[in-house]
TrEMBL record:
Family: Belongs to the short-chain dehydrogenases/reductases (SDR) family.
CDD domains: SDR_c
Listed GO MF terms: oxidoreductase activity
PROSITE patterns: ADH_SHORT (PS00061)
PANTHER family assigned: OXIDOREDUCTASE, SHORT-CHAIN DEHYDROGENASE/REDUCTASE FAMILY (AFU_ORTHOLOGUE AFUA_5G02870) (PTHR43639), SHORT-CHAIN DEHYDROGENASE_REDUCTASE FAMILY PROTEIN (PTHR43639:SF1)
Coiled coil stretches, renumbered: none
Pfam annotation, one family: adh_short_C2
Protein keywords: Oxidoreductase
Protein name: SDR family oxidoreductase
Length: 247
């Protein structure tokens, strides 16, 4: 809250299964949270209620990160509540299959604008606050190991995530030394319950992972804790994938 010197985090995409767990974990670590949600008001309210059990001065706002005006409005709302920004976690994402040869312009715009354009303008808005602060702050993008894989049915998504990883390095160079900018690239963490044969698919995916298990929020938070405490790491993409990229 204004006037108080407590750690503050802005997070986009905090209402999904992984995102909400990360947001709650950050609140448990002492961050006042300001997060955005897009199309799940019930999930957003539940996330906020859980966060406020640990950090009462936390808030949320609706935001479509594919629209620059919506991002700017979200940061205007943020400034109503806070005067500092310690951590910007860029996590909003859109993910679904788009086989090459069948991709529509609407699908392309949604996937690229949400995953790449949204990341850029969110980082730009956050940087406009962070680079003028008298302390070192941090930006962390949540990308995907798919940025390094060739998935024939997810081309717009994987290309957007690869672009965001490059963007992470650009911002790291531009904002140094005041702001440290890194990316966490998760491997396989959750199985979409709408997919058929979910249990069989889960076992199949585990066979592709050298460590033999899917990831958890704890795995992400271990890396995020490191990045928020370390003062000499910037411009890095850290894969959290159980060794998946080794196969």
């Amino acid at each position: 809250m204004k006037g108080e010197q407590r750690k503050v985090c802005v997070m986009t995409g905090a209402t999904g299964r992984l995102g909400s767990s990360i947001a709650l974990s950050l609140a448990q670590r002492g961050y006042d949270m300001f997060f955005t949600w897009h199309s799940s008001p019930e999930a957003a309210q539940e996330t906020l209620e859980n966060i406020r059990k640990y950090r009462l001065d936390s808030f949320m706002t609706q935001c479509d990160v594919s629209k620059v005006a919506s991002i700017k409005n979200a940061f205007s709302e943020f400034r109503r509540h806070f005067e500092r920004l310690d951590l910007l976690l860029v996590s909003a994402s859109s993910f679904y299959a788009t086989p090459v040869g069948q991709v529509t312009e609407k699908e392309w715009d949604n996937l690229v604008d949400t995953n790449f354009k949204g990341a850029f303008f969110t980082m730009q808005e956050g940087a406009s606050i962070m680079q003028h602060q008298p302390f070192v702050s941090r930006i962390v993008t949540i990308t995907d190991i798919a940025a390094e894989l060739v998935w024939k049915n997810f081309a717009p998504y994987t290309a957007a995530k690869a672009a965001t990883q490059h963007l992470t390095k650009v911002f790291a160079r531009v904002l140094a030394p005041r702001v440290l900018v890194n990316s966490i690239a998760p491997g396989t963490f959750t199985i979409n319950p709408e997919w058929n044969n979910g249990q069989d698919l889960q076992e199949e995916l585990k066979e592709r992972i050298p460590l033999g298990t899917l990831g958890s929020t704890t795995d992400i938070m271990g890396v995020l804790d490191f990045l928020t405490e370390n003062t000499y790491v910037t411009g890095q993409i850290i894969n959290v994938d159980g060794g998946r990229l080794l196969c």
